[in-house]
Write a structure and sequence with these properties.
- The protein is about 15% helix and about 40% strand.
- By secondary structure, the protein is mainly β.
- A hairpin with a 2-residue loop joins β6 and β7.
Length: about 160
């Protein structure tokens, strides 16, 4: 039996477009025996999910560049390059890119599995093409898929305040 490679080179990994943002899976449930998943993301200015809860996994963020405004439970704070944010499962949270430039982060989910939501709800990235921003129908479709992955949050763009 071959061991999975420890290296995922820069620019590699399954990449998905998700509501104008880009998510690349660097480690999946399959490559970690379900222990964790790791995603690299590019978050557009003004983008970020609505307030939501993960019921099955803890989520952590490591901000590589840009500035993200976070709400985690009752706390609100600014996450900048080098900051680490831990969100235990069951805690309501959201973030938004408040800078003028794309923010880059690393997301970690433990146990693994939530990466499958991005892959199922998003669109495979097509090099050289612009990343599409979603409308109400795409948001509602993603919200339906998210529920199957233990996500609790607004079901429509209107409920999300978008």
């Amino acid at each position: 039996m071959t061991e999975p490679s420890a290296l995922v080179p820069a620019g590699h990994g399954p990449t998905t477009w998700f509501d104008g943002n880009v998510y690349t899976v660097k480690a999946s449930a399959e490559s970690t025996n379900g222990a964790m998943s790791v995603l690299e993301s590019s978050i557009l200015p003004g983008s970020g999910p609505p307030l939501h809860v993960h019921t099955q996994e803890d989520e952590a963020f490591y901000v590589l560049s840009g500035q993200l405004s976070f709400t985690v439970g009752d706390e609100e704070f600014l996450g900048k390059a080098g900051d680490f944010v831990l969100v235990p499962r069951g805690i309501p949270h959201c973030f938004k890119n408040i800078s003028a430039h794309v923010a880059h982060t690393i997301f970690v989910y433990t146990p693994a599995g939530f990466e499958k939501f991005f892959q199922e709800a998003g669109d495979p990235a097509v090099p050289g093409m612009p990343v599409p921003k979603w409308g109400p129908a795409e948001y509602e479709r993603a919200a339906e898929i998210a529920v199957r992955h233990g996500w609790e949050g607004p079901k429509t763009e209107r409920e999300a305040g978008r």
